[in-house]
Automatic annotation (TrEMBL):
Organism: Oncorhynchus tshawytscha (Chinook salmon)
Pfam families, per database record: Ig_2 (PF13895)
Signal peptide: 1-40
Keywords attached to this entry: Glycoprotein, Membrane, Signal, Transmembrane, Transmembrane helix
Protein name: Ig-like domain-containing protein
Lineage: Eukaryota, Metazoa, Chordata, Craniata, Vertebrata
Localization (cell): Membrane
Record-linked InterPro entries: CD2/SLAM_rcpt, Ig-like_dom, Ig-like_dom_sf, Ig-like_fold
């Protein structure tokens, strides 16, 4: 019986320990979750490293007498009735001006304002979070067969928001670092820009006109050259060959004409001696009366000359017929009519 009781006690104790452990784990989880939500909501103002920031208390105190005190992490950094070093700057209204912020300036800033009677006018806490500024983005583009991909390079910046714009107009729904545009929608006059920002700063890229050069992979090649270039070369060479062919044809035709004309002239020169006696006989028969008259006339002339000079005039000799076996005499071709001597 004693052993059973001890075993039952051990079982109950182990169950209690397990329940206690689970309760501790759940409590720690709730605490961490609460701290996480508190940290997420604790920043009420943001600023970038190296920038200036004004923390305003929200009251209009110009022309009034008051006691103002600013503190950072429960440490007084400004007091109108105390000499704090280094003493930060304030605006005429009493707002705190922080210059050249650094990461260690993060934390709560509490302002306390009293009137001259020592009555509390305002007590306010502002939690400032100093973040690294975003760098200026660099916009690049990559061309594919059917689209263009624009990429906004933000460098080492984290937790940034990206906004795309075309021709200074925001493109809704485009918040990724990469923007894809089809070539059908792409226009040569469009300018694209991306804007990156966090809770403390904002930067814009330069305007980019994404022009795509002709892709060599999609270009049709012929003998290792572009098709349009080869077509232009072949067209130019074909035109040149056609011109040379026409010139050669004209020269050949003119040469054949000259040769035919020369052959015809040589043939006429060979046939000229055969037709010469017939022409002379016809001419002799045609001019016979004139010769008889010329024969009678010289008698009168001879008598008159005998009476005047007493010198005989020789009688003209008749042309001697040429033998048929005489060699032909070349006679040049005459284009005009024959001229006969009387």
């Amino acid at each position: 019986m004693m052993n059973r009781a001890l075993r039952h006690t051990d079982t109950v104790w182990s169950r209690c320990n397990h329940s206690l452990r689970m309760s501790v784990v759940m409590l720690i989880s709730l605490i961490l979750l609460a701290l996480g939500f508190a940290g997420a909501e604790e920043c009420t103002m943001y600023a970038a490293v190296g920038r200036n920031k004004v923390i305003d208390h929200g009251l209009e105190l110009l022309g009034q007498s008051f006691h103002l005190r600013w503190s950072h992490d429960d440490k007084i950094v400004y007091d109108t009735r105390k000499n704090t070093k280094p003493k930060p700057q304030t605006t005429p209204n009493g707002s705190l001006l922080l210059t050249n912020l650094q990461l260690n300036n993060t934390g709560p800033y509490q302002v306390t304002i009293y009137d001259n009677a020592g009555k509390l006018m305002l007590e306010k806490t502002t939690h400032l979070c100093v973040l690294l500024p975003v760098s200026k983005p660099r916009l690049t583009h990559t061309c594919t067969d059917a689209s263009v991909s624009l990429r906004c390079d933000v460098g080492n910046s984290v937790d940034v928001n990206v906004v795309w714009s075309r021709n200074r107009q925001t493109l809704t729904g485009s918040t990724d670092k990469t923007l894809t545009i089809t070539k059908a929608m792409l226009k040569s006059v469009d300018l694209y820009m991306c804007t990156v920002s966090n809770k403390a700063s904002e930067e814009k890229s330069d305007d980019v006109n994404p022009e795509c050069a002709e892709d060599s992979s999609s270009t049709v090649l012929l003998f290792g050259m572009k098709l349009w270039l080869m077509v232009a070369i072949l067209a130019g060479g074909g035109s040149l060959l056609l011109i040379l062919f026409v010139i050669t044809l004209v020269c050949v035709c003119q040469s054949r004409r000259r040769r035919a004309s020369r052959i015809k002239e040589e043939e006429e020169m060979r046939l000229a001696p055969l037709t010469q006696p017939t022409r002379q006989a016809s001419l002799h028969h045609h001019h016979h009366p004139h010769k008889s008259q010329s024969r009678t006339r010289p008698k009168n002339r001879t008598q008159s000359q005998d009476t005047q000079n007493s010198r005989p005039v020789p009688r003209p000799r008749s042309p001697q017929p040429k033998p048929d076996d005489a060699p032909p005499i070349p006679i040049p071709r005459r284009t005009g009519p024959w001229n006969h001597r009387n």
